[in-house]
Structures are given as C-alpha cells and as structure tokens.
Write a structure and sequence with these properties.
The chain is of the alpha/beta class and 105 residues long. It has two helices and six strands; from the N terminus they run E-E-E-H-E-H-E-E.
C-alpha cells in the first residue's frame, strides 16, 4: 500500500443538510421525511473520499460555532485523525439540499 499522505484545505466548510421530501409543489408545504447531516466543503469531501478509499489524509479548515464542533466530531467519528482547524468567531454555514424519493425497482 502506498504511504502517501494527502493534505486537503477547506477555507469555507459547511454542514451539508440533505433532506428528502415527498413532493415539491409551488406555494405548498414540503415536509421533510428524512434528513442526513454531513461535514461538507470541497476539501473535507475529498478527505472523506480519500479516507474511505484507504488513503492517509490530513484535513485542515476554518471552524466556527456549534456547527463547527459538530463538523469536527463527525470527521473524527469517520476515522479522519489528522484534523487541523482554525477556530474563528461566528457560526459555520449550513447548506440545505432537497431531494425527492427515488423510485425503487
């Protein structure tokens, strides 16, 4: 196995909040039926992928607020051990994505 250590830098991380809704209709309420929250941002997404592929990775980024603390905990739970963060005042952004259920065969 290759011993290469990959470094990623994420200057603008976020929490990706992926919501599944039953329908999206204009001027109607869309109720969330499932929600998945993931540590996001380009560099952290790459770090997660590389780690899952079996590579060694070190991830760095800017962290803020309760969202930032959740973000770091989630990355640690995934097994990414080399995390370097700069904590700043404020709150990390949230990115909401809405999905319709996929058809199952």
């Amino acid at each position: 196995m290759d011993d290469t250590l990959f470094y990623t830098v994420t200057p603008n991380p976020c929490l990706d909040i992926n919501c599944t809704v039953q329908s999206l209709l204009k001027d109607d309420v869309s109720r969330i039926v499932d929600k998945n929250i993931m540590a996001g941002g380009k560099g952290y997404n790459v770090a997660r992928f590389l780690h899952a592929a079996g590579s060694r990775v070190a991830a760095a980024g800017i962290i803020a607020g309760k969202n930032g603390s959740y973000h770091l905990r989630q990355l640690r739970c995934l097994g990414i051990k080399n995390l370097f963060s700069v904590r700043v005042p404020g709150e990390m952004r949230e990115n909401y994505n809405f999905f319709l259920p996929t058809a199952r065969c």
